[in-house]
Design brief:
- This protein has 386 residues and is of the alpha/beta class.
- It contains 14 helices and twelve strands.
- Bound molecules: iron/sulfur cluster (SF4).
Length: 386
């Protein structure tokens, strides 16, 4: 059983000490960050967003973490992949605001990495960014939000994609195509292939530009509605869970590779579940929040923290009116992130794969660092406005 520290977004009173940054401070205390980082070079891995996004982890939270590391005698730096780190100051992340520099994880051109051999489907080696592997302590400071490939991104996603160079990130997405889903010989009619494309309302399937008899699924767009299966000739196309699940298994393996470069006890995880959008922070914009803020979380167990964040988020409600009109809810089973990204994109899968790899436990105790005071009142006396 792992401990996950939690700060609720709800307040009883209008006091700063009950707000989320103050609760993150309490979590930092519980995780004993100051006691653990003396003399350590601390990589604070976060997603700094891209272009016009403004819903990633707010600099007020980042500064809390940076300050704690400095207080403890550690040497902090914030880091993210090159194309997000470049321009991070435009979204509020600069030395002046957060208290430490922002470095690209693998250098400006992603040429600085360490390769780790671990064959999985189309992937032979995993290229861990040099600034990550060179650090002696890792703080995984994640923002919870949706994700088109796996429906949800937080602690696992922040490391799985964000600590690898672009070549490996691309291969992880390509892994979804590893298991066969299209049998061209069963659909020789070009007009039928065009019909399959046209019946999809999400641009989820396309015809190969060079080999017109081949078709490709765009797994990010596909919400597994099944419309294409109703027109495709029998046996020509599969919308198969294995292709979708592969991405999450790859995320778990990628995370395992990165965490293996740190000594035991030298990595910890924090998740900020505020302004959760349907898609990842890398899309270059922020859309409306589709779930109420769910709080702040902290744990040394990456499996437990994602499991707990998902559980807490799942007990809120989907703000359906905030979804982009191009998205549709065609299932209401399981987690709300699954509702909007489709049944084969169950956000809990990465926790299952992570647990199988020995990265942590899905069993956790949620410790509320400042339980919300329940205010009792006497019954009201009616005062007429007249
Ligand atoms: S299952 Fe639905 S979303 Fe996916 S490719 Fe087919 S029609 Fe498009």
């Amino acid at each position: 059983m792992s401990i996950v520290y939690f700060g609720s977004p709800r307040q009883a009173r209008w006091e700063a000490k009950e707000s989320l940054p103050a609760k993150l401070d309490l979590i930092i205390e519980k995780l004993a960050i100051r006691d653990r980082v003396k003399g350590e070079t601390v990589a604070i891995k976060m997603h700094t967003g891209n272009n016009l996004s403004y819903s990633t982890v707010h600099p007020v939270f980042v500064r809390k973490v940076v300050q704690a590391v400095k207080d403890g005698g550690g040497k902090p730096f914030v880091t993210d992949v090159n194309w997000d780190a470049r321009g991070a100051e435009e979204r509020g992340y600069s030395s002046e605001t957060i208290g430490c520099p922002v470095f690209p994880t693998a250098g400006p051109d992603e040429k600085y990495f360490y390769a780790h051999l671990r064959p999985y489907k189309n992937i032979q080696d995993w290229k861990v960014a040099g600034m990550i592997q060179d650090a002696s302590f890792l703080i995984n400071l994640a923002h919870a939000k949706g994700h088109p490939s796996c429906s949800f991104g937080a602690a696992f996603k922040n490391l799985a994609l964000g600590c690898m160079v672009g070549e490996t990130r691309g291969a992880m997405h390509d892994a979804m195509h590893f298991d066969k889903y299209w049998w061209a010989e069963r659909c020789p009619d070009a007009a039928m292939r065009q019909r399959i494309v046209e019946v999809c309302p999400h641009d989820g399937i396309v015809i190969d530009r060079d080999k017109p008899e081949e078709m490709h699924l765009h797994f990010e767009q596909c919400n597994q509605c099944g419309r294409c299966l109703q027109v495709a000739p029998p046996g020509s196309l599969k919308i198969d869970p294995v292709n979708f699940h592969t991405f999450q298994e790859a995320c778990a393996i990628s995370t395992a590779v990165t965490l293996s470069t740190f000594e035991p006890g030298k990595a910890t995880h924090m998740t900020i579940a505020t302004h959760m959008t349907p898609l990842c922070d890398c899309f270059g914009f922020t859309s409306m929040p589709i779930l109420p803020d769910a709080g702040v979380f902290g744990s040394d167990d990456i499996v437990a923290i994602d499991q707990a964040a998902l559980d807490v988020i799942g007990r809120t409600r989907l703000i359906e009116e905030n979804l982009p009109t191009s998205m549709e809810v065609h299932t209401r089973e399981g987690h709300p992130f699954r509702w909007i990204h489709g049944p084969h994109k169950d956000p809990y899968l990465v926790c299952e794969y992570g647990e199988q790899l020995g990265l942590g436990s899905r069993q956790y105790e949620l410790v509320d660092v400042l339980p919300v005071e329940q205010i009792t009142r006497t019954s009201v006396t009616y005062i007429s406005a007249k």
